[in-house]
Amino acid sequence: METRYLQFNDAHLRCAADLIRRGELVAFPTETVYGLGCDATDEQAVKRTYLAKGRPSDNPLIVHVWSKGQIPEIARDVSPDAQKIIDCIMPASITVVLPKRKIIPDCVTAGLNTVAVRMPRSQQARDFLRYCDVPVAAPSANTSSRPSPTTWQAVKEDMDGRIAAVLCGSPCDVGIESTVVDMCGEQPLILRPGIVTADMLEELLGKKVRVVTDPKEKVNSPGVRYKHYAPKVPMALELEGDEQKLKNLYLKLQAEGKNPVLLVENPQNFPGFNVYCIGQTDREVSRNLFSNLRALEKNYGYIIASFSSKTAFAQSILNRLVRSASHNVV
Ligand code: AMP
Ligand code: MG
């Protein structure tokens, strides 16, 4: 199939929306990462999404809306706390898990009786969703297990020839996926951390929010247990900013002929090394994380990343970094 590369103008948005309504797959930008969209009410289209990504069928998809008015059409029994998140935070980089309505087929939710709902903050994303005017199921637009795409060029690397179209919008500002919070129980439960942190939700709701931290904990979010975000080359992760340790590991890998590269907070402290900056602030680290991994895997044989920030948002970034490194923390 020949993939079309579309722009953000009326004619191309119409074309993208027509493709969605005909059951085709269209990648589109959001503020977190690029999504691979299809009509969430079309079972065949949803199945094609899993195929295009090579995604295990027990990993449910997030359903995207452009208007809060669409939420009661796909979810039911919205609790007062969930409603508060919808009213006070959305549109934002947060996904709320709610009891689902029948209009959403089981293949979207991997058989769960809940549906994950998101209204993106990105204006480009909401424009596209408004033209579609059906709920749009969208996982990240990468091949399963690869770093999520944060530019249309990264989508092209993974999806060219496999999907009908890519809407070529801005690079993603947040750079890691949305916070997923399960609002079906008494206590809100963060299944996947993101830029909307537990403290922010606690302040809004006036109650404790639990965060799933143990990857072995059995939660109703199958997606969190798979191999994820991994570059094509091996990766190690260092968490204290211990520059001597980083240099020693680099030199050892270099002596073994592994062609290593450093991705660190202070590259100026590594003269003579192959070294890149991971970012000066959490926002910068997050925005560039996946595009850095995709760039470095092309030229190096081993990525050594270092990230020592200890803020609440840094914990969400770490959640991705640890998986990118396949838990190889040194
Ligand atoms: P991705 O599509 O790559 O952003 O991943 C979507 C994430 O949302 C995965 O971690 C899924 O497990 C999670 N998710 C989607 N739908 C549900 C649901 N109904 N209940 C719990 N988690 C969900
Ligand atoms: Mg993903």
TrEMBL record:
EC number: 2.7.7.87
Keyword field contains Coiled coil: no
Any one GO CC term of the record: cytoplasm
Localization terms from the record: Cytoplasm
YrdC-like domain: residues covered: 10-196
Keyword check for Cell cycle: no
Molecular functions (GO terms): ATP binding; double-stranded RNA binding; L-threonylcarbamoyladenylate synthase; tRNA binding
GO biological process: regulation of translational fidelity; tRNA processing
Membrane-traversing stretches: none
Binding of L-threonine, residues: 32, 64, 138, 178
Top enzyme category: transferase
Entry keyword set: ATP-binding, Cytoplasm, Nucleotide-binding, Nucleotidyltransferase, Transferase, tRNA processing
Pfam families in the cross-refs: Sua5_C, Sua5_yciO_yrdC
Catalytic activity: L-threonine + hydrogencarbonate + ATP = L-threonylcarbamoyladenylate + diphosphate + H2O
InterPro entries linked to this entry: DHBP_synth_RibB-like_a/b_dom (IPR017945), Sua5-like_dom (IPR006070), Sua5/YwlC_C (IPR038385), Sua5_C (IPR005145), T(6)A37_SUA5 (IPR010923), TC-AMP_synthase_SUA5 (IPR050156)
Entry binding sites for ATP: 55, 59, 114, 118, 140, 148, 192, 229
Protein role: Required for the formation of a threonylcarbamoyl group on adenosine at position 37 (t(6)A37) in tRNAs that read codons beginning with adenine.
Family (UniProt): Belongs to the SUA5 family.
Classification via PANTHER family: SUA5 (PTHR17490), THREONYLCARBAMOYL-AMP SYNTHASE (PTHR17490:SF16)
Protein name as it appears in the record: Threonylcarbamoyl-AMP synthase
Lineage of source species: Bacteria, Pseudomonadati, Myxococcota, Myxococcia, Myxococcales
